[in-house]
């Protein structure tokens, strides 16, 4: 029972990271009707930037502050230089372009840091465990859950309560009409793309102390993000949250029951959802 | 204020508008009449930068609008109310107004609520839950809070009950009295008679008739010939 | 003996009824037009007839067979072809190839022939393709790429593709939409000629054409049939006038 | 028939040239095998317009089935490859029939999910597939016809076999792409709605395209395993699907010879570059982007462009008269 609870909490921790990873993907899809195969790469580069900052300064908090900004800037730079020219193309060409971007980023990372993964240690203040009665849990994992929950609230607030968020939601319904109200749609696109990248980078920062940084974590993350987005429903904030938690918990609990089958299950779930309910749990028709 | 000089517009390969000219002065309402497919909506979209204008020019208050992006055109104060209203259905009524609101506008969101009490009642409702008439009011209201220097309405009375049509006629006159010119696409001649100062008739993308408000009554038969039977 | 009848055809989207209880009756070798102002439900009716959309209730009989539940591809095999309102061609293929693909669509097997060169399959369609080329006046442009045709010509080819299927009934969705003034007589002549061999159901905005060439006209408004009759009856019907121009036209 | 006669010498020339020009026979073998695989991808993408991340499923499946048939059934290598092809066709029909139920991005996602499923199934069934280690020591059982034994025990003999397969498969695919079926696929790709309205059951055309694509990919996958004597797990990875796609696109998907160019480019340039620059995939990502933006038809269209330019420049007298 205790193990189960432990796995459940782990799943929650995994789930909130998955949420951060996926929310940008789902919102860019909703707003731009654009599928970004390079999204996983933002997560990977986020982990590497964390590795660099932590090994240079020894300060994880600095990485938590700076790395997401770096990734957000990187995302905007990519959007401006490559991605935005593919908006007018068919979906399949957008996929190929971003696939090329992802491949380049991955190879670039290997060129700089080599193909072997790097370890990142959690901040010393979060080393060790918390004890609640008999139950013990790593401090860092607890922090990840709490911090990500906070970010989730901030993202929700930003989307629901600010003018920018309302514009993003309006734009995902009818971008042309938003332009007719005098809003510069291309700028709205790139800012949203950048913020999505920033959140994926943040997920990479949080994941780095848990699983290290390696060049192939981007591809893996992209697969996960797709599952989350498909299960939750493309374009939906709530979908990314619920989908992330469902996938995280499912993976974590399964891995103690049938380790090999954990990934099998989530991909089977993804296929089943697309076939039976293509709009996902919360996607708009 | 608005001046169209032999405008030729295209949808992809198809040439839709042929040498269309018209002008609109401060405080005027210009009605554009014509059958379905005559190019009325294309004319409005050409002004708003949504359609490819390959020849001719469009000026507003001396600034060239031809083939600029729509948001720049909107920034000049041209506020467009599209035919299918394009209310943001996932946003509430209030959010629909809020994202469009420009502090410089003569209409604050509260002014809108006193102008359209119905919208105030429904301000927390989703845009998708409004009736056709309410959507039309919201679409016009959304344009008004955006600080319009000119209003462009595409068939605002289409499919609406007579009571609501009357209300929309009132709003149009109201806006006109503040000096804001209005470009109005309308198939209902009786509405045009009440609100328009002048009109043009489009047929197959060309201006085939133009005249004053008086002509709308005097030349009814001629106009009807172009519009329907 | 009608070729196409609908019995209380109804299509609703949620609570909104786009088409209500429409009874249509199309006689063979006639040109039957459906007109009506925006939002009258013409396009929805058309989609129901072609099978693009499922009816909510009611029945459609074509050539004495119930077809209400058949998909679009089945209907075309039964002898019911359509044109599209927005030009819908195979733009990278030649005029002839477009017609060949259309002609082969009605047989369920020929398109699957992967074991022999297309030349042998294409022979079978020669008669149908020639008929379509001739009727639409494309004999000299058969090898032109469809994407290079002018808009008016593309609209003609649009009708030609339906013809190449040698249908019993042809459904035309606004064949003149977006056409220049000069090209319109070309289409209306063509449509008029067609009724010699087949039946035409025409959905059209352009009243002038409809009044000129139709045998029978159905006027729709708000999803229902408003009036039905010959062009002369329609021309003089006060209700039609009101439907198009709004109220208060009694002084006309 | 004339069609095949026309292409036959070109294909034989390609197979011979690969053997004579390329620095090693194993490189030549690999080029021809991957040309078949890229062709399998082109059938889907270039003719049916389907961007699928599922090619690794058929590739890996072919490799496993061919290998297992050699190890456990002891059948000769030809029968083994035929079983692999049949398995590829069956699974492709299944994957295709499910995937085409969704369109656009959801179709792509489905094929991606199926590849991942295939990967984890292969990983889990390690008793059969060798899991992470792959299937090792795959033999090539010789064919025994009336006591007359044909063994492909040298790399030259294996190359000859691959070359014959290459020529036959390409001839078959040329026939298919020039058949009414091929033209119908192109029509569906250009305008699916119209094709449906004309009476075509679009989904069956797509499924058939999947079957052709899956069976030749599985055949090639089988050959690849016999070539390496090894069927690694990486055959069914998503990255394999990506590489196959990139190969097909860079070569050009609208023409069967694009597949040869794509394979040549990826295998040979990859072999040359990786010797002194291991991260040459970086370049590949860039080339993919440039291809999508500037040369949608791939290298083959570039090549045609060069030919056209040359013939206009040097053969101008004859061509100008015609126009």
From TrEMBL, chain A:
Source organism superkingdom: Bacteria
Gene Ontology CC entries for this record: plasma membrane
Keyword annotations: Amino-acid transport, Cell membrane, Membrane, Transmembrane, Transmembrane helix, Transport
UniProt keyword Transmembrane helix present: yes
GO biological process, one term: amino acid transport
Location of this chain's protein in the cell: Cell membrane
UniProt xrefs under InterPro entries: ABC_transp_permease (IPR001851), BCAA_transport_permease (IPR052157)
Membrane topology: Multi-pass membrane protein
Principal subcellular localisation of the protein: membrane
MF terms in GO: transmembrane transporter activity
Transmembrane segments: 12-35, 47-75, 95-116, 140-159, 188-210, 222-250, 256-275
Family according to the record: Belongs to the binding-protein-dependent transport system permease family. LivHM subfamily.
PANTHER family registered for this protein in UniProt: ABC TRANSPORTER ATP-BINDING PROTEIN, BRANCHED-CHAIN AMINO ACID TRANSPORT SYSTEM PERMEASE PROTEIN LIVH
Name of the protein in question: Amino acid/amide ABC transporter membrane protein 1, HAAT family
From TrEMBL, chain B:
Keyword Nucleotide-binding: yes
Sorted UniProt keywords: Amino-acid transport, ATP-binding, Nucleotide-binding, Transport
Single GO molecular function: branched-chain amino acid transmembrane transporter activity
GO BP, sorted A to Z: L-amino acid transport
InterPro entries membership: AAA+_ATPase, ABC_transporter-like_ATP-bd, ABC_transporter-like_CS, BCAA_Transport_ATP-bd_LivF, P-loop_NTPase
Gene3D superfamilies in the record: P-loop containing nucleotide triphosphate hydrolases
Superkingdom to which the source organism belongs: Bacteria
Keyword Ribonucleoprotein assigned: no
Domain ABC transporter residue range list: 2-229
Family classification: Belongs to the ABC transporter superfamily.
Protein's name according to its UniProt entry: Amino acid/amide ABC transporter ATP-binding protein 2, HAAT family
From TrEMBL, chain C:
Residues in the signal sequence: none
Superkingdom of origin organism: Bacteria
Gene3D superfamilies in alphabetical order: P-loop containing nucleotide triphosphate hydrolases
Transmembrane segments: none
Keyword ATP-binding tagged: yes
All residue ranges annotated as the ABC transporter domain in the record: 4-247
Keywords: ATP-binding, Nucleotide-binding, Transport
InterPro entries to which the protein is assigned, alphabetical: AAA+_ATPase, ABC_AA/LPS_Transport, ABC_transporter-like_ATP-bd, ABC_transporter-like_CS, BCA_ABC_TP_C, P-loop_NTPase
Keyword Nucleotide-binding: yes
GO CC terms, sorted: plasma membrane
Pfam families: ABC_tran, BCA_ABC_TP_C
A molecular function (GO) term: ATP binding
PANTHER family, sorted: ABC TRANSPORTER ATP-BINDING PROTEIN (PTHR45772:SF3), CONSERVED COMPONENT OF ABC TRANSPORTER FOR NATURAL AMINO ACIDS-RELATED (PTHR45772)
Protein name: Amino acid/amide ABC transporter ATP-binding protein 1, HAAT family
Organism (species): Ruegeria halocynthiae
From TrEMBL, chain D:
Protein's name according to its UniProt entry: Amino acid/amide ABC transporter membrane protein 2, HAAT family
Chief site of localization: membrane
Transmembrane segments: 12-37, 44-65, 77-98, 105-125, 158-176, 207-231, 243-269, 281-307
Pfam families: BPD_transp_2
An example Gene Ontology molecular-function term: branched-chain amino acid transmembrane transporter activity
Keywords: Cell membrane, Membrane, Transmembrane, Transmembrane helix
Subcellular location: Cell membrane
Membrane topology, as annotated: Multi-pass membrane protein
Superkingdom of source: Bacteria
GO cellular component: a single term: plasma membrane
């Amino acid at each position: 029972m205790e193990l189960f609870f432990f796995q459940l909490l782990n799943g929650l921790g995994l789930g909130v990271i998955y949420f951060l990873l996926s929310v940008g993907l789902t919102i860019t899809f909703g707003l731009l009707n654009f599928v970004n195969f390079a999204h996983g790469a933002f997560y990977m580069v986020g982990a590497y930037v964390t590795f660099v900052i932590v090994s240079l300064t020894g300060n994880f908090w600095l990485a938590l502050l700076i790395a997401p900004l770096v990734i957000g800037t990187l995302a905007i730079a990519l959007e401006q230089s490559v991605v935005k020219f593919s908006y007018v193309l068919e979906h399949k060409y957008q996929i190929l372009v971003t696939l090329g971007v992802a491949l380049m980023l991955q190879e670039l990372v290997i060129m700089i840091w080599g193909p072997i993964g790097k370890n990142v240690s959690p901040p010393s203040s979060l080393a060790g465990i918390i004890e609640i009665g008999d139950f013990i849990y790593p401090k860092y994992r607890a922090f990840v859950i709490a911090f990500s929950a906070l970010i989730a609230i901030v993202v929700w607030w930003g989307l629901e309560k600010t003018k920018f968020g309302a514009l993003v939601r309006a734009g995902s319904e009818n971008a042309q009409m938003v332009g007719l109200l005098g809003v510069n749609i291309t700028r709205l696109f790139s800012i949203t793309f950048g913020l999505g990248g920033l959140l994926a980078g943040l997920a990479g920062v949080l994941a780095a102390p848990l699983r290290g940084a390696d060049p192939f974590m981007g591809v893996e993350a992209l697969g996960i993000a797709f599952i989350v987005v498909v299960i939750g429903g493309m374009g939906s904030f709530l979908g990314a949250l619920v989908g992330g938690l469902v996938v995280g918990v499912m993976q974590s609990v399964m891995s103690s029951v049938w380790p090999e089958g954990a990934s099998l299950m989530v991909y089977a779930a993804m296929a089943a959802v697309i076939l039976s309910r293509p709009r996902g749990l919360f996607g708009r028709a | 204020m608005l001046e169209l000089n032999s405008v030729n517009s295209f949808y992809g390969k198809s040439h839709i508008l042929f040498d269309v000219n018209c002008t609109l002065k401060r405080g005027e309402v210009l009605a554009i009449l014509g059958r379905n497919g005559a190019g009325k909506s294309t004319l409005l979209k050409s002004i708003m930068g949504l359609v490819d204008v390959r020849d001719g020019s469009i000026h507003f208050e001396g600034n060239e609008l031809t083939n600029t992006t729509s948001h720049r055109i909107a920034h000049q104060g041209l506020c467009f109310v599209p035919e299918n209203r394009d209310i943001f259905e996932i946003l509430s009524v209030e959010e629909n107004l809020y994202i469009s609101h420009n502090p410089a506008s003569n209409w604050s969101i509260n002014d809108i609520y006193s102008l359209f009490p119905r919208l105030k009642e429904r301000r927390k409702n989703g845009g998708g839950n409004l009736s056709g008439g309410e959507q039309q009011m919201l679409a016009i209201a959304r344009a008004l809070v955006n600080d319009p220097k000119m209003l462009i309405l595409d068939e605002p009375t289409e499919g609406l009950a007579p009571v609501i049509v009357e209300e929309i006629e009132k709003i149009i006159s109201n806006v006109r009295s503040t000096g804001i010119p209005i470009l109005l696409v309308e198939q209902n001649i009786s509405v045009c008679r009440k609100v328009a100062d002048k009109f043009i008739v489009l047929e197959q993308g060309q201006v085939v008739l133009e005249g004053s408000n008086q002509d709308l009554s005097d030349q009814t038969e001629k106009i009807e010939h172009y519009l329907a039977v | 003996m009608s070729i196409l009848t609908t019995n209380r055809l109804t299509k609703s989207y949620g609570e909104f009824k786009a088409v209500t209880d429409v009874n249509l009756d199309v006689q063979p070798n006639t040109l039957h037009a459906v007109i009506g102002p925006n939002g009258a439900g013409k396009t929805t009716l058309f989609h129901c007839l072609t099978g693009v959309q499922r009816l909510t209730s009611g029945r459609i009989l074509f050539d004495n067979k119930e077809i209400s539940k058949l998909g679009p591809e089945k209907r075309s095999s039964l002898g019911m072809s359509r044109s599209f309102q927005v030009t819908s061609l195979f733009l990278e293929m030649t005029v002839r190839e477009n017609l060949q693909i259309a002609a082969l669509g009605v047989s369920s097997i020929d398109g699957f022939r992967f074991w022999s060169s297309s030349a042998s399959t294409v022979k079978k369609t020669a008669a149908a393709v020639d008929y379509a080329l001739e009727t639409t006046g494309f004999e000299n442009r058969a090898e032109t790429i469809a994407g290079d045709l002018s808009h008016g010509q593309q609209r003609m080819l649009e009708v030609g593709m339906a013809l190449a299927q040698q249908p019993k009934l042809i459904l035309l969705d606004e064949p003149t939409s977006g056409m220049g003034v000069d090209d319109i007589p070309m289409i209306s002549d063509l449509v008029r000629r067609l009724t010699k061999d087949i039946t035409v159901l025409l959905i059209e905005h352009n009243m002038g054409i409809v009044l000129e060439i139709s045998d029978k006209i159905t006027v729709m408004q708000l999803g229902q049939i408003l009036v039905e009759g010959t062009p002369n009856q329609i021309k003089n019907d006060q209700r039609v006038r009101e439907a198009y121009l709004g109220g208060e036209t009694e002084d006309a | 028939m004339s069609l095949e006669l026309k292409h036959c010498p070109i294909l034989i020339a390609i197979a011979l040239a690969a053997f004579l020009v390329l620095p090693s026979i194993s490189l030549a073998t690999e080029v021809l095998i991957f040309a078949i695989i890229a062709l399998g991808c082109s059938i889907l993408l270039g003719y049916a317009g389907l961007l699928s991340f599922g090619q690794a499923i058929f590739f890996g499946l072919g490799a496993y089935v061919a290998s297992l048939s050699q190890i456990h059934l002891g059948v000769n290598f030809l029968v083994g490859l035929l079983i692999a092809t049949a398995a590829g066709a069956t699974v492709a029909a299944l994957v295709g029939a499910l995937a085409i139920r969704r369109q656009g991005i959801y179709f792509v996602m489905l094929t991606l999910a199926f590849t991942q499923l295939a990967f984890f199934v292969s990983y889990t069934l390690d008793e059969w597939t060798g899991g992470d280690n792959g299937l090792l020591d795959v033999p090539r059982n010789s064919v025994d016809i009336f006591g007359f034994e044909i063994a492909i025990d040298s790399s030259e003999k294996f190359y000859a076999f691959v070359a014959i397969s290459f020529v036959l498969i390409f001839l078959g695919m040329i026939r298919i792409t020039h058949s009414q079926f091929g033209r119908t696929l192109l029509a569906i790709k250009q305008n699916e709605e119209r094709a449906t309205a004309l009476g075509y059951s679009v989904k069956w055309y797509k499924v058939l395209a999947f079957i052709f694509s899956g069976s030749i990919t599985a055949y090639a996958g089988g050959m690849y395993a016999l070539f390496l004597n090894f069927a690694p797990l990486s055959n069914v990875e998503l990255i394999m699907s990506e590489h196959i796609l990139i190969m097909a696109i860079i070569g050009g998907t609208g023409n069967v010879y694009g597949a040869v160019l794509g394979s040549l480019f990826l295998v040979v340039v990859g072999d040359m570059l990786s010797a002194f620059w291991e991260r040459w995939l970086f370049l590949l990502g860039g080339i993919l982007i440039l291809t999508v933006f500037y040369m949608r038809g791939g290298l083959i269209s570039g090549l045609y462009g060069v030919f056209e330019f040359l013939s206009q420049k040097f053969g101008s007298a004859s061509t100008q008269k015609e126009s």
